[in-house]
C-alpha cells in the first residue's frame, strides 16, 4: 500500500508498506534513474518517453556518447506513435519535435537523429546524445557531479 500526503507547504510525503519499501530500497540494477524535475520541464508525451529511453542508454552517466538505436517500427512502438505513421511522419511529427524540446529544456542532453538506409528506405534510426561530461562547462560538470554523488535513496551525499 502506498500513501501520498501533500502538505500545505508544498512538501510531498510518500509512505510505503514495509515489503514494498524493502524491495524498492534494495534495488541495485534493472532500473533507470532520471530527475523528476527534468520530466516536468517536458510538455510532449513523446519527449518524456524519448527522454526516459535516452536515460536508459546512458549507462556511464555522461562519460561517453549515449546511443539509442532501432528500426522505425521499434521507435513507433517505444514512443506509442500511431500505427498508420510511416517513417517520414514519425520523424517529422514526433522524433524531430521531441529532440528539439529535449535539447532546448534538458541541460545534459544534446540529441541528434541519424538514419541508416537500404537504398532509399530508412531501416535503422539512431538517436545520439552528444553531450558528455568532458564537453560540459564547469557549471554543468559541477551540476552532474552533484547528481552522481547524491544517494537518492538515503537522502544524503556519498
UniProtKB/TrEMBL annotation:
Q: Which InterPro entries match?
A: Initiator_Rep_WH1 (IPR000525), WH-like_DNA-bd_sf (IPR036388), WH_DNA-bd_sf (IPR036390)
Q: Which GO terms describe its biological process?
A: DNA replication initiation
- Initiator Rep protein WH1 domain span: 7-54
Pfam families (UniProt xref):
Rep3_C, Rep3_N
Entry's Gene Ontology molecular function annotations: DNA-directed DNA polymerase activity
Gene3D superfamilies, alphabetically?
Winged helix-like DNA-binding domain superfamily/Winged helix DNA-binding domain (1.10.10.10)
Q: Family assignment? A: Belongs to the initiator RepB protein family.
User: What's the protein called, per UniProt?
Assistant: Initiator Rep protein WH1 domain-containing protein
Please name the source species. Answer: Lactobacillus helveticus (Lactobacillus suntoryeus)
Amino acid at each position: 500500500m502506498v500513501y501520498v500526503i501533500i502538505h500545505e507547504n508544498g512538501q510531498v510525503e510518500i509512505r510505503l508498506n514495509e515489503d514494498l519499501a524493502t524491495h524498492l530500497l534494495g534495488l541495485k540494477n534493472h532500473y533507470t534513474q532520471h530527475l523528476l524535475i527534468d520530466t516536468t520541464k517536458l510538455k510532449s508525451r513523446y519527449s518524456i518517453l524519448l527522454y526516459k529511453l535516452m536515460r536508459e542508454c546512458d549507462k556511464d552517466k555522461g562519460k561517453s556518447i549515449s546511443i539509442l538505436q532501432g528500426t522505425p517500427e521499434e521507435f513507433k512502438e517505444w514512443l506509442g506513435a500511431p500505427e498508420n505513421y510511416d517513417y517520414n511522419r514519425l520523424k517529422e511529427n514526433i522524433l524531430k519535435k521531441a529532440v528539439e524540446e529535449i535539447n532546448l529544456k534538458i541541460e545534459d542532453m544534446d540529441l541528434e537523429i541519424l538514419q541508416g538506409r537500404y537504398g532509399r528506405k530508412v531501416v535503422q534510426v539512431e538517436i545520439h546524445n552528444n553531450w558528455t561530461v568532458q564537453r560540459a562547462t564547469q557549471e554543468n560538470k559541477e551540476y552532474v557531479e552533484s547528481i552522481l554523488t547524491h544517494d537518492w535513496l538515503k537522502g544524503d551525499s556519498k
